[in-house]
Amino acid sequence: MMAPVIENSGRRSNSALFAIPYSLPMIVTIDGPAGTGKSTTARQLATRLGFDYLDTGAMYRAVAAECLSRGIDPAEIAPVGELAQSLVITFDEGRTFADGKDVTGELRTAETTQAASLIAQNPDVRRALIDAQRLIADEHNIVCEGRDQGTVAFPHAECKFFLTADPEVRACRRQQELAAQGTHVPLATLLAEQTARDERDANRQIAPLRPADDAQVIDTTNCDINEVVTRLESIVRTRST
């Protein structure tokens, strides 16, 4: 049975001294396509609120990376579902581990990205990971990010956000991320891959990518991360009072 461990948000900012006093675990969801700043926003928001951060995207990518490592076809339903059920995913100091192996460096490769998009359509994988996410949320105040957190995993979350951004801006951000890792990919290639993934995510039968009906949609095209985090923090603190 999968037993992922949530990442503590680590060093607290000054605002975390005023962590929200919530009687029951509070859930903040941040959904949206790749390149909108979800991960960085969620991590920083968790730090400011004094909450824990759950990187659900890394969970799917860890399963995908292990599929590739073990020679399992990401498109095969049953074998991938069995792997997701048994794989132990843990997070420690910003790094991701699968069955104790550090897979952080494999999570953002082009191969893993493509495989993750395929396994995200696997109903067995989604059930396994969503069950694990809900178990975590039973005991923690969390900020979680992904593609179905506000619609499927936590439909009753107190605060839901959906981040968007101009497609070319998103592709540029991905290009810069890869360049920082020493990988240089033409923008046109990344934009084409991104468009194909967006279409798969939006049109899949299982948990399609879309804003929850009660989510606040935030366009990050012309905003820096600090602006986005400050805006979300203000909304969350208003909702908690």
What does this structure look like?
With 241 residues, the chain is α/β, with parallel strands linked by helices. It has one domain: P-loop containing nucleotide triphosphate hydrolases (Rossmann fold). The protein has 9 helices and 8 strands. The protein has helices spanning 38-49, 56-70, 77-86, 110-119, 123-137, 149-153, 167-180, 187-203, 225-240, and strands at residues 27-31, 52-55, 89-92, 95-98, 101-102, 142-146, 159-164, 216-219. A 5-stranded parallel sheet has the order 2-6-1-7-8. A 3-stranded antiparallel sheet has the order 3-4-5, covered by helices on one side. Strand 4 and strand 5 (101-102) form a beta hairpin.
Summarize the entry for a quick read:
This protein is of the alpha/beta class. The protein has helices at residues 38-49, 56-70, 77-86, 110-119, 123-137, 149-153, 167-180, 187-203, 225-240, and strands spanning 27-31, 52-55, 89-92, 95-98, 101-102, 142-146, 159-164, 216-219. Helices cover 47% and strands 14% of the residues.
| CATH top-level class | Alpha Beta
The topology string of helices and strands comes to EHEHHEEEHHEHEHHEH
Helix content: 40-55%
The count of β-strands is 8
State the helix count. Answer: 9
Tally of distinct domains: 1
The separation of the N and C termini measures 37 Å
| CATH homologous superfamily classification | P-loop containing nucleotide triphosphate hydrolases
Q: What average pLDDT do the residues reach?
A: 87
Oligomer class: single chain
CATH topology: Rossmann fold
Shape: globular
Strand order of the largest sheet: 2-6-1-7-8
Major beta sheet summary: 5 strands, parallel
Low-confidence segments, given as residue ranges, are 1-23
CATH architecture: 3-Layer(aba) Sandwich
Tell me the radius of gyration: 17 Å
